[in-house]
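User: What would this chain look like folded?
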Amino acid sequence: MRLGITGHRGLSPAVEAQVRAELAKLVDATAAEDLVGISCIADGPDAWFAQAVLQHGGRLEVVIPAGEYRESLPDWHYPVYDELMARAADVHHTGMRESTSQAHQAGSEIVVGLADQLIAVWDGQPARGYGGTADVVAYARRVGVPVQIVWPEGASRD
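Assistant: Here's the prediction, encoded as structure tokens.
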């Protein structure tokens, strides 16, 4: 099973704990030898999912939206990003240089294209900018990739 991930960044510690637990359950439901996780490995759900896949014994494929993508992420996330990159079985690139919302959407579309199912850590609200989680969910639905929504009951984004 090839599972892709998209989701909101900047979640509170309480929501993070709930989301991590739910992602672990979804990952653990697939036999390790059959599991491939596909992620852009940004801080938040992308990285949490990737870590859960590797901890379970699955394979990780990383999608890099842009050449300058890593530098667009918070510097505190670099060690996690670098570790996940080092453990990736395969890396896919959009070919874009600047880390823009267009590049992020292009990267997410690659994730969707490689996945049998998309997991979306999504509050059900419209995207706050082009390439947000809602746009990725809409794209997956348009191209016929099933979407599994993960959002803790009563949770909210800042």
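The beta strands are 2-7, 36-39, 59-64, 90-93, 117-121, 147-150. If you want, I can go into more detail on any region.
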